[in-house]
Amino acid sequence: MNCTNSIATENLDVAYDETVIVRSLDMKIPHGKITSIIGPNGCGKSTVLKAVGRILKPKSGLVYLSGDDIRKLSTKEVAQKMAILPQTPTAPRGLTVSELVAYGRFPHQKGFGKLTPDDKKIVQWALLVTKLTEFEHREVDTLSGGQRQRVWIAMALAQKTDLILLDEPTTYLDLAHQLEVLELLHDLNRSQEVTIVMVLHDLNLAARFSDYMIAIRDGNVIKYGTPNEVMTTDVLKDVFNIDAQIVREPRTSRPVCITYDLLRSDDLNFDEVIAV
Amino acid sequence: MKNRRFTTRKGTFIILIMFLVMLAIAIISINSGKMNLTPGEVLNVLFGNGTDKQNLIVFEFRLPRIILAMLVGVSMGASGCIMQSLLQNDMASPGTLGISSGSGMFVLIFVVIFSAQGVSSAITLPFLAFVGGMTAALLVFLLSYRRGRDISPIGLILTGVALSSGYGAFTMLLTLKLDQNQMDFIQRWNAGVLWGDDWRYLVILAPWTLLLLAYVMYKSRILNTLHLGNETATGLGVAVKKEFLGLSIAAVALSSGSVALGGNFFFVGMISPHVARKLVGPNHKLLLPASCLSGAIIVLLADTITRTISLGTNVPTGIVITILSTPYFLYLLAKAN
User: Fold this and answer.
1) What is the rounded distance in angstroms from the CA atom of residue A59 to the CA atom of residue A65?
2) C-alpha distances in angstroms, B231 versus A85, A146, B240, B336?
3) B140, B86 in Cβ contact below 8 A?
4) Tens digit of each residue's pLDDT (9 = 90 or more) over B205-264
5) How far is A159 from chain B (nearest CA, A)?
6) Distance (Å, rounded) from C-alpha A228 to C-alpha A255?
7) How many CA within 13 A on the CB side of residue A246?
8) How far apart are CA A158 and CA A100, in angstroms?
9) DSSP assignment letter at B57
10) How far does B231 lie from chain A, in Å, by closest CA?
11) Cβ of B237 and A85 within 8 Å?
């Protein structure tokens, strides 16, 4: 139970009904850093995030949130320390940006939950850092995908937590908007010291914006380390079953995968397969 | 900058107007009927200066009926609003969880075994309708429950649909064995007829409805978060399982109560939240009362029409509602897309 860890899991098993998705997972998320979880489809990376975010109840094992056993905290106490952004959340029609962001104050409110001046200040702050102030009275469902994602991030920010979990925050966004969202998270991490944990599909974006990467396959951590340690031909071969070529990208000097091929199982030669 | 469509002040104002409209219709409704009373006469009666005949008309016939209509409308409106938000489905109604077909079946079983006119039916019938509705909904929850998993709105809806058709089939089977009298009663019950307009029932239904309303109003903030989806709500620190269950049981209890005395008014439960959402927006602090009031206005208006305009034989109020509101509902749906 190291307190410099924002999250630690111990022997975590997560299952849907009888199918075990994640097996005895030990994972550490350092405080104040950006950590990305990568892995192939169905490897359990979203499941890990959900289990850590207590959306899924683990079959066995423990999750520690800044050193505390998460089961011993009330869900409201957890929400004061950790915000979660599910994949592609939807906002009810007619809800305005500032209303949705104000819902982020929920874990800090009591009773009927009238917004205090403090709450309002925090909502304004969240709108400001996500550059949404001019949209505050717009309805969420009239915004573009990138703006909408920023609204949800603003809601998570309004929770005023040290830790935000995001499940594929760039889904359905174009190149520019993907970058915009990740830049925003990066800025928040650097300026507000918010610990960020996210599941990302795009390896190169993960390598570019993360301090640490966790590569998962079949519910097990294959490799944990800095982007330079994780983005190697060997690791990607183990995790994705690909033959990847990794180079250092000139602008950010981060590793990128410039091209890759599929690896065939047990090195069957294509000609041999045809012959069989 | 675009003007804000929904604000708290505007919403509160609209709710006040709706309340006044409801009162106005209630007053008109007291005045009108097979025997017209002037507003002055009604006032006299309410202040205790009416003739015996006028007293009888107002206190024994019209007032209880009006109060019942309002209670049924209010609870259907609230219940429908909660269901649509919890299940995140605009087509959900209190009937989605099988309450309508469940209570219908229980009522039918009673009518088959006994007759609808017996002395015991005064208390047994509404009680059975209530129990039937609650049982049906609880069964849906039990059947869609998966160990270690979250409550799934889709699972609930599908189980509700499956059970409803099961009840429907059994109901049909029983219907074939009815005589003309029983058949009439059941058909009118299914169409929605405000039959429990008797003070004996109202003294039970009114506090029941008001207590449950107070509970769901207190939970309106939770409803706001649940409307964002169960995962987001969990992230915000809502004990989703507990609150989901509590709110849906409240919704079921509200509608079962009114279905017991009013019959099948689930269509009101489906359209009232739509009307309300259009007027005050998605915040449940405003949406819930607006949905209650629009439910009350719809039922009251339809019932007043039923009582004043002679449409041949005694037409069930529910039929009038369906006829009047179907075009409006279609219009809403057409505009939404």
Assistant:
1) 18
2) 8, 21, 9, 26
3) no
4) 899 999 999 999 999 999 999 999 999 999 999 999 899 989 988 998 898 888 888 877
5) 8
6) 6
7) 19
8) 10
9) I
10) 6
11) no
H or E element: which one contains A214? strand A212-217
Tokens of A15: 């299952």
The reply to whether residue B282 touches residue A94, judged by beta carbons under 8 angstroms, is yes
Q: Which of B16, B85, B76 is nearest to B277 (CA)?
A: B85
- Calculate the alpha carbon distances from A162 to A43, A98, A156 in Å: 27, 21, 10
* Model ipTM over 0.85: yes
For residue B205, give the nearest of B280, B130, B153 by alpha carbon: B130
Whether residue A24 contacts residue A61, with contact meaning beta carbons closer than 8 Å, is answered with yes
Residue in A60, A58, A71, A62 with CA at minimum distance from that of residue A16 = A58
Structure tokens at A144: 């573009």
The letter for the amino acid at B253 is A
Sequence length of chain A is 276
Q: First CA to last CA across chain B, in angstroms?
A: 24
DSSP per-residue letters across B73-89: HHHHHHHHHHHHHHTT-
> Hey, of B88, B151, B234, B285, which one would you mutate to test binding to chain A, going by the most A CBs within 10 A of its CB?
B234
Q: Where do we find the tokens 């208006």?
A: B301
């991490």: which residue's tokens? A189
Q: Quick one: average pLDDT of A264-274?
A: 56
CA-CA distance, A214 to B221, in Å (whole number)?
Answer: 37
pLDDT tens-digit profile of B54-73?
Answer: 888 888 888 999 999 999 99
Alpha carbon A179 to chain centroid distance?
Answer: 15
Q: Which residues of B touch A112 (CB under 8 A)?
A: 218, 220-221, 285
- Per the model's pLDDT, the better-predicted residue between A42 and A255 turns out to be A255
What is the crossing angle of helices B199-218 and B284-308, to 10°? 160
Measured CA distances, A2 to A8, A23, A28, A67, A211 (Å): 8, 22, 9, 6, 19
Average pLDDT, chain B: 85
- Is the pTM for the entire model greater than 0.80? yes
Per-residue pLDDT reduced to its tens digit, B274-295: 999 999 999 999 999 999 999 9
Angle value at C-alpha B88, between B269 and B264, nearest 5 degrees: 20
Which burial class, exposed, middle or buried, applies to A258 when counting CB atoms under 10 A from its CB (0-12, 13-18, 19+)? Answer: exposed
Tokens at B179, concatenated? 């005589």
User: What is the distance in angstroms between the Cα of A196 and the nearest Cα belonging to chain B?
Assistant: 15
Facing residues of B70 across strands? none
The DSSP result for A166-183, as a single string, is EE-TTTT--HHHHHHHHH
